[in-house]
Amino acid sequence: MKELEQLLELNKDIDTLLDKLAVRRYSVIDPKRQIISDMPKPKGGCRINAIEDYIINAETIHNEIEKLCEELKIKWLIFLNNYEEAKLTIKERELLEMRFVKGQRWKFCAAQMNILYPFERWNESKVYRTYKNIIKKIEKYYH
Hints:
By secondary structure, the chain is mainly alpha-helical. 72% of the residues lie in helices and 0% in strands.
């Protein structure tokens, strides 16, 4: 489904930005880059202050992450509204949300479903079968 793929892509974009933020954060605390702003500047150039650079870039990245998270929430609500007549159960919605909104792997989804529904046995195969049934349910109403 195109909508679910878009949700997963947004999740990947958010994860990429979080990784970029972590790398920049490390560059500030890296012992090899201790730059104090009152140190003399080298000949012919200015010294880049890693802390100031991180703060400026971190704010920009945080804004991008917030924007993508908001877009993800909106697309998820649109998805639920568009396919309301398919009458997805709470379990099915939780499974889709874990996988496509939170971006978890099938194995993690199975573990979480075991926690949420301890009287049922969930494994990757059952999770994937449930997902296929959800897709069939949606296609039945909308195709």
